[in-house]
Design goal:
The chain is mainly beta and about 800 residues long. The chain is about 10% helix and about 50% strand. The strands form seven sheets. The chain has a 22-stranded antiparallel beta barrel. Mean pLDDT is about 90; it is low at about 5-20.
Length: about 800
């Protein structure tokens, strides 16, 4: 170990010694081509190195000790197209260079990092990356991550619980468990956080979202089968700024945002706070047609929610060495949501029938250090710690207790209710640490990347249970209430290497590979004896190797072709659906024999870029082996109080084609449209709908008529589309967006022992949103609406809270005022 450490120190010292003092100086300024005014704080970078600087407040810059000979200098600034110029640097001499930047209406000069862990302009990145800027989030009036991701091509966000609004993100047809959500490049978004986390993560501190689809595990480890969503935080601004925003809407919506940012010498700091409040909504009821559905039933369609976000970012520039950077971040989230029966305010009591109440507290802290080593290498160290707590109640224990305490003389009547002092919430506490170390070096035509990333998490949970299954009535433990104590853990360490090889100026090949060692387990104990044998524990251990290769070819400066293929792996740990259902419900069983999913993904894309328009086509396919599926518990598992289990049910695939176009149609007018055609199927029909020997089919043979439909991947629309139109005359901004969802298949599992269960093929529908704003000096007033035509789903069944596939309440509108000082 000491020899390895000494070797690394020697390597870093030798690399640092390469930074020779040439005394070759570069001076210049950056102006806007239109108007000629100086542009402050533009970034100036020497291509092929990590040497860079930023203009001062007057738009001027200087760089010292540049490499000698011909060099390419790049100037970039948000909102402007990048510009490259060549200069010849001579030892002990100064050279002048001047830039004039043009406006970038299509935002093609965005710098992205997620696809390769190295910085690229969006049109030059070898692995296709899509970006949502903070301006785009403002236009969408996205208060949280859930709303930010709505309408992104290839992504579908959805809610699966009417009583708690459990949400998840689906990428190219695959569920949340296949999508890695990153914060500043680190996977600190755990399974516990993912249950409601899309709505708990505010947007006040988001600079941009980067989306990379498919073949992600080669860089980001387990759970990146479908791809990765990277949340990039804002950096402190050069000019001191204070921002405030207040917003009001129907259904009791109130939103408050505040932030401040400044830099002083080599220190930068930003602080932010956000609060959102919204009342519960009841607008729909059970029914088989939209006419029947469109009536109140006294049960919440949207929960009552209060969400608070606050945090800080502290930057130290050049604290220990030239051009190094140290970043400290801290964030706190506090949320309370509750829903259910609203009649007589019953949902305000968390221990009553048909209610849910969830409180979430999340604290996170992370440290990042970037150290340039000479002109061509750098070292990045990052570590993050997260404490996440959830306190939740629902009516499952209440129902199970009443079912097991019925009067034998009156079996059709409700049983006795539990004593008040017995009732308590499900509590989960999770501690997660994610350290990583990455080394990057540019060697001629190669950009080499090597790193190690780890993920350690510990979850402790307690909840009330009672064994109440009908076939357990003869058991001496039938009806005995008990507290279950669960302990879960996961350890994962991954090593990855990548070579970004610029074979020619037009051809780039990026091979990469990642080795992951994963181990996890679950064990349970109970407050009283409720079984003749101990609760079974589960263990899972697996080492996987995931290679990936990407190719980019520049047919012309405007036409870029990209292709990539890679493998992925999903470990059977921390499924968010477990943590949703376990909030007072029976546990979800994972057998130690459960296999991890394996995947192979293919992507082929073509993008045409010009200053005024952009066209794209992206073909994708992912093959899954041993896909894990949520299923009812079998008889042996039920004896321990489990209601559900995870199984490797089948192999499956998803595939499709995404089409996109974006254009600057006229001065101040831009428009974009995206269209996706999808298909996803299991290799075989699912047993619970097709196998005559399956218990569900034996009892209700009518389920067999849905056997053919059971092959389709649930909740994967055959077609999606979206468009946006932006018009910005002077100080006005007008936006109109629309999203289309094609038909898809969704299971309905009825509570009447499955008698009315079915697989529904939904109808195609389209939603429209609009927004208008006016800037008045330091103030901006704005107003907008979502789902402006009040579309709601055309069928509803409250007994299956997950039977949600479209809006279940009508239009929401808002007005607001923002101030920037």
């Amino acid at each position: 170990m000491n020899k390895i450490l000494m070797f690394l120190i020697a390597l870093m010292c030798s690399l640092a010694s390469m930074a020779q003092g040439t005394d070759a100086m570069l001076f210049g300024d950056v102006k806007a081509k239109e108007g000629g005014q100086h542009l402050p704080h533009a970034t100036i970078r020497v291509k092929g190195t990590n040497l860079k600087t930023q203009c001062d407040g007057t738009g001027h810059f200087k760089l010292s000790n540049l490499p000698l000979g011909k060099q390419t200098i790049i100037a970039t600034l948000d909102g402007y197209q990048s510009q490259e110029k060549e200069v010849v640097m001579t030892e002990n001499k100064g050279t002048d260079i001047y830039f004039e930047l043009e406006k970038d209406p299509l935002e093609l000069s965005q710098v992205v990092v997620t696809g390769t862990r190295t910085s690229h302009f969006i049109k030059d990145v070898p692995i296709r990356t899509e970006v949502l800027t903070s301006q785009a989030l403002t236009k969408k009036n996205a208060q949280n991550l859930y709303e930010a991701l709505e309408g992104v091509p290839g992504i579908r966000v959805e809610q699966q619980c009417q009583f708690c609004n459990f949400s998840e993100v689906r990428m190219q047809g695959l569920g949340a468990e296949h999508t890695q959500v990153l914060i500043d490049g680190e996977p600190i978004y755990s399974g516990l956080a993912g249950v409601y986390g899309l709505q708990q993560m505010g947007t006040n501190d988001i600079d941009r979202l980067e989306v990379v689809k498919g073949a992600g595990s080669a860089l980001y480890g387990s759970s990146a089968v479908a791809g990765a969503i990277n949340i990039i935080s804002k950096e402190p601004t050069f000019e001191p700024t204070i921002n405030g925003d207040i917003q009001f809407g129907n259904y009791g919506f109130k939103g408050y945002k505040g932030s401040g940012s400044m830099r002083y010498n080599n220190i930068g700091i930003s602080v932010f706070a956000q609060r959102a409040e919204m009342d519960a909504i009841d607008e729909t009821q059970d029914g088989l047609t939209r006419k029947e559905v469109k009536h109140k039933d006294g049960v919440s369609d949207r929960v009552n929610e209060t969400m608070n976000n606050l945090g800080f970012n502290l930057y130290f520039y050049q604290p220990f060495a030239k051009n190094d950077k140290l970043v400290l971040r801290g964030k706190a989230i506090d949320e309370h949501r509750f829903g259910g029966v609203m009649t007589n305010n019953q949902y305000l009591n968390p221990y009553t029938d048909q209610t849910e109440d969830i409180r979430t507290n999340r604290l996170s802290a992370d440290l990042t250090y970037n150290l340039p080593l000479g002109a061509h290498s750098e070292l990045n160290l990052s570590t993050a710690y997260v404490y996440h707590k959830r306190n939740a109640t629902n009516d499952t224990f209440l129902h199970d207790y009443m079912d097991s305490h019925k009067d034998p003389a009156h079996p059709d009547e409700d049983g006795a209710t539990p004593p008040v002092e017995m009732m308590r919430p499900y509590i989960a506490k999770e501690h997660t640490v994610t350290p990583s170390l990455t080394f990057t070096s540019i060697l001629d035509k190669h950009t080499l990347l090597a790193g190690v990333q780890a993920y350690f998490t510990r979850l402790r949970e307690t909840g009330l249970y009672v064994i109440s299954a009908e076939d357990e009535k003869a058991s001496p433990y039938y009806g005995v209430p008990y507290t279950s104590i669960g302990k879960k853990h996961a350890n994962e360490v991954g090593f990855f290497v990548q070579d970004e090889w610029n074979v020619t100026p037009k051809l780039t090949i990026v091979p990469g590979i990642r080795l992951d060692s994963h181990s996890s387990g679950e064990e349970y104990s109970t407050s009283v004896k409720v079984s003749d044998s101990a609760f079974p524990s589960t263990k899972f251990s697996k080492t996987t190797i995931n290679p990936r290769i990407a190719v980019k070819y520049e047919v012309t400066p405007s036409l870029i072709l990209r292709a990539n293929i890679g493998t992925g792996f999903r470990a059977p740990y921390g499924f968010s659906e477990d943590l949703h259902l376990c909030s007072g419900s029976p546990r979800v069983w994972k057998s130690s024999n459960l296999k991890g999913e394996r995947a192979i993904s293919y992507n082929l894309s073509a993008d045409y870029y010009s200053k005024q328009y952009q066209f794209s086509i992206n073909l994708f396919r992912t093959n899954l082996k041993d896909k894990i599926q949520f299923s009812p518990a079998d008889d042996e598992v039920k004896k321990f109080g489990y209601s559900y289990q995870w199984e490797n049910v089948d192999d499956a695939y998803v595939q499709g084609v995404e089409l996109g176009a974006k254009a600057s149609i006229a001065r101040n007018l831009t428009a974009g449209v995206n269209w996706t055609f999808n298909q996803g199927k299991f290799k075989h029909e699912r047993a619970e709908w097709s196998d005559p020997n399956d218990e569900s089919v034996k009892e209700f043979p009518q389920r067999l008529k849905y056997a053919k439909e059971s092959r389709y991947i649930s909740r994967f629309p055959g077609m999606t589309g979206d468009f946006d139109i932006d018009y910005t005359p002077g100080t006005w901004t007008f936006s109109l967006t629309g999203s289309l969802q094609g038909s898809m298949y969704i299971d309905y599992n009825s509570e009447d022992a499955g008698q009315n269960s079915k697989i529904k093929k939904t109808s195609t529908f389209m939603l429209f949103n609009c927004r208008a704003s006016k800037r008045l000096g330091m103030c901006t007033i704005y107003a907008g609406a979502k789902n402006i035509f009040s579309y709601i789903q055309d069928e509803k069944h409250t007994d299956d809270a997950a039977f949600m596939y479209a809006p279940v309440y009508g239009a929401t509108w808002y007005v607001g005022l923002s101030v920037k000082l």
